[in-house]
Amino acid sequence: MSQNAVGATGTPRRSFLGGIAAGAAALVVGRWSKASAEIAPLTAPALGDEWLTKIKGKHRQVFDCTSANEGFGVAFGLNWADTVKDTLKATDADITPVVILRHFAMPLAMNDKIWAKYKIGELLNLKDPKTNAFATRNIFQDNVPLHPNLTYSQLVANRGMVIGACNLALTVVSGMTAPKAGVTADVAKKEWTAGLLPGLVLVPSGVYAVNRAQETGCTYCYGG
């Protein structure tokens, strides 16, 4: 699968890391240039580990997703679960795929309202196949690759998948996109937090969540 432009150019990646280091400005070249772009404070009320109780069963694997990767991070988790189920004659109760959306994969956890207001399709260079224009809706959350019309929320509710969104990435990326949406970084972060898709969980940071999942017995797989 091909990388999207964010992963290929590395420019927003540098901006993301610069935002974490500076904690005050996102210096993004091209369409997203704005030297005065705000980054909300990276400190926030601590998020807990309650989500770890959702990891159950004998077979556990965490998928570490750092880019949109055409939506395949969640698909990898489902494909692994289906393979385990078919090969080992296991049940859904025996299997927990954990998908962590961090860095520039994190916006895949946001609802359509956030995608439209904060121009996520433009940020990630993702086109909507229905319009061939930059996506103003989450084109993956209800159309998992290789599984048309399957939603993230259904995977959580019916297949036991755990999908976590990185709070650190949410803080940085919402702040980067706030100026174009005409709001402050603080407002953007509140709206993005409220815009998390049903059934998904906000984790303190993606790297923390990947580590904690492994400490809970998950094997590791890079999800793109």
List keywords for this structure.
224 residues, alpha/beta, Hypothetical Protein Ychn, Chain: A, 5-stranded parallel beta sheet, globular
Give the number of domains: 1
CATH class: Alpha Beta
Query: Structural class of the secondary structure composition?
Result: alpha/beta
Shape: globular
Question: What would you note in describing this structure?
Answer:
- The chain has one domain: 3-Layer(aba) Sandwich (Hypothetical Protein Ychn, Chain: A).
- The chain has a 5-stranded parallel sheet with strand order 4-3-2-1-5, sandwiched between helices.
- β1, α3 (72-88) and β2 form a beta-alpha-beta unit.
- The radius of gyration is 17 Å and the shape is globular.
- Residues 1-11 and 19-37 have low confidence and may be disordered.
- It contains 9 helices and 5 strands; from the N terminus they run ααβαβαααβααβαβ.
- With 224 residues, the chain is α/β, with parallel strands linked by helices.
Topology:
Elements: H1 5-9, H2 11-22, E1 59-65, H3 72-88, E2 95-101, H4 112-117, H5 120-124, H6 152-159, E3 162-166, H7 167-181, H8 185-194, E4 201-203, H9 206-215, E5 219-222
Parallel strand pairs: 1-2, 1-5, 2-3, 3-4
Helix pairs in contact: 7-8
Brief account:
By secondary structure, the chain is α/β, with parallel strands linked by helices. The protein is built from nine helices and five strands; from the N terminus they run ααβαβαααβααβαβ.
